[in-house]
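Hi Y.,

Following your request, here is the sequence exactly as I used it, all 470 residues.
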Amino acid sequence: MSAACALRQRFQQTGKPTMKRRNFLKQVAGATALSAMSATATGAAREERGRAAATPNLLWIWCDNLAYGDLGCYGNKRINTPVIDGLAESGARFTQYYIAHTVCSPSRAALLTGRQPFRTGIVDVLRPDSPTGIPSDEITLGDALRANGYATAAIGKWHLGDRTEYLPAQHGFDFYFGLPYSMDMLPTLLYRNNDIIEELPGDAVQNITERFVDEAISFMETNRDRPFFIYFNHTLPHPPINLPPERRSPGQTVYDDAIEHIDDQTGRLLAALDRMELAEETLVVFTSDNGPMGKYGDTAGLRGRIRDSYEGGIRVPLIARWPGKIPAGSVVDTPAISYDIFPTFVKLAGGKPPADRIYDGQDLWPVLSGKGDIKRDKPFFWVYLDKVTAMRKGNWKLHVSHRDSPLEIPELYDVKSDPYEARPLNERHPDIVKEMLEAIRNYEAGIPKVWSLQYPVRDPNKRNSGVRRE
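Below is the corresponding structure, written out as tokens. Let me know if you'd prefer a different format.
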């Protein structure tokens, strides 16, 4: 089997960490231990919750390949999503939120580390039994938030390596309940922390979403008296989709049913926060890791799908709610990208990103709170393997490759006036094309070379890749 694996050249251009992750964790271990001990005492726990305005609970809900136009609040007239639409009505809805990579594993690496995926060495989809995964010296959101006193849980799809050293328990999460990779990779193994507790063949996966939600609610209950971070990862609507029979609607596609199922289960999470009187103290974010896969998925007319750096492949919904902190019904048109989440969450938790490595994102709180704007320090670059495919600077977006195939003629678009990327402006603005091509060349000089890696799948029960057909 062939997979792309980055040769992680250790030089400062790529953001070489000079502080080992374990040293970072040692520096904050004392503070974390004190925080955890105080959270077990009733009086101290009440004091801890009294500081919630400064340190909210963080609930991150990630769908797998949900398209930009799949929700009612993003214009869909066919699929019923009242819970998620209500979340948008009571919070903020982003119109130009991007994921940092066109496929799953790198996209997740970017979110959890706040860094371009190539800096972590994860540059393509990881397969079952891949010898690579998230490196031990990367500091994840789990690490950084736990260092600031948070209880941390990863629930649902992980997809950053399925060997023990790459699982969430080794990367900042107190608790893990989920699947190590996508639903189209076999076998479907359910983990609790580092242990495989079940194999879920065929229809045994039908109620997995409910089980994920059950575990998330249980984690909230257990940690209601201290700040918590739940990194919740749906497996839906990534194909193949296998839903409980009662979730199927006559005359409706299984894809649409899956999104309505997500909406229902999101309602369970929000109801649990209400029941525990934690809604006012919790920042909830609902979004997607990539554009749509397969023939279903409504991009709202945006060009492209998963693996494409056109807008339909990388622009996804993002909704954020924190009652009293984020203005209800607000619409954020400021461009944002998934590696912005790391500095945003860490700052809200009272911490700072380590100073020993390159971080690519910026704090989004000024636009989330409605109290300011952000000025971008640098453009957005999308990289596939070791080459830039597209760049956005201001309203300008330049495409130079389609996946791993260079374009004969670069394509320049004004994505504010033409989000559908239907009217290339190369000939009208050759100066802009020249400037952006130069920026791309300079940026590529700092990207490590990617080599093709041949490796055997050591576990005979694991399928190399490909869509499950059983």
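The two ends are 21 Å apart (CA to CA).

Thanks again,
Q.
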